[in-house]
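[Automated response] Your request has been received and processed.

Submitted sequence:
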Amino acid sequence: MFRCCSRLAASAPCDSSSVRYVVVLMVLVRIAAAHQSSTKYVEVRVDGDRADVTLRCMPGDVTEPMKLAPDAKPSAAAAAAAATVPAYVASWLALRVPTSNGPVTCTARDPKSRGEDDGFLAVTWSVTCAQPIEVLILDFSAFFALDKRMEALVRIDDDADSIRVTAADNPIGLDVAPAKLFAFTPERLAFALLIVLVAALAPTFTRAARDAAVMFALYELAHVAGALGWIAIPPLLSQLLLPATVIYAALETAFLQSVRWRAATFSGFAIVHGIAHPHALVADLGTALVTTAAALAVLLPLVRAVVPRIRIAWIASAVCAFGGAWLLQVVLVRV
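Generated structure:
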């Protein structure tokens, strides 16, 4: 059956050991072929701190838990009926969420399998995570341990596009947070108040409104520039920088109330805010419009009305205290 001479080994003797070597090699290739170019299809639906997972594969991919030969071809119904198959397939994928203490694995439960009309085997299970899912880490280490040449096509919720995951991409983190129309964050609100405090010192309301509008425009443009993703900083560093910028800007506002220098400081820190808290462009623009409109129409007249009675430095000091409490909380809890 096997001829070991011809082109590959014209000068080698065709002995029994060579034949055995060829037989073993072909058996190994045949076993590896069971998973060689297999593509699995993964669907993940996120709802708060819970995710429902469906993984579709061919019945031939689960011969191991069925205790069949690697080249066996069971039917989808037979694979779905095997009690050991659901847990085996669910073990291919671990889901995690990033937390302040590092990634935490979500708890998987109740894997079930079913045969589908197109011949695929579908295995479904649910996971519960430690917090609402905004970023989801998919770890296919057990899957690629079977064969690094395999790939997974992942689809999140009702997204029309699938994400191709290979061994080189594993593990992969996906932003699955629902789209937000607004992105109000503590540092953004603090800087809105500081901008109004600086602008409120103008001699007339018209001049104050103009100065505030210019500073808001510079801040928001710089924030968008920082959120473009051209640089990334570690999460812990960003958590420390955000309250630190609030403290420094509040101290400057209390002691140095020049519009020109405050505009430069606010714009520089806005880039840091954009890098630390990147949001979708729609959310950034929506937040900018609402914040600017509310500040000019409500907050600026209110601040100008109380300035004769309350010094700007006092309000800035309150903002500084807020930043200090925020920084202390980060240090005590995160560091």
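Summary generated for your ticket: The CA atoms of residues 118 and 292 lie 55 Å apart. Residues 1-14, 21-37 have pLDDT under 50 and may be disordered.
If you did not submit this request, please reply to this message.
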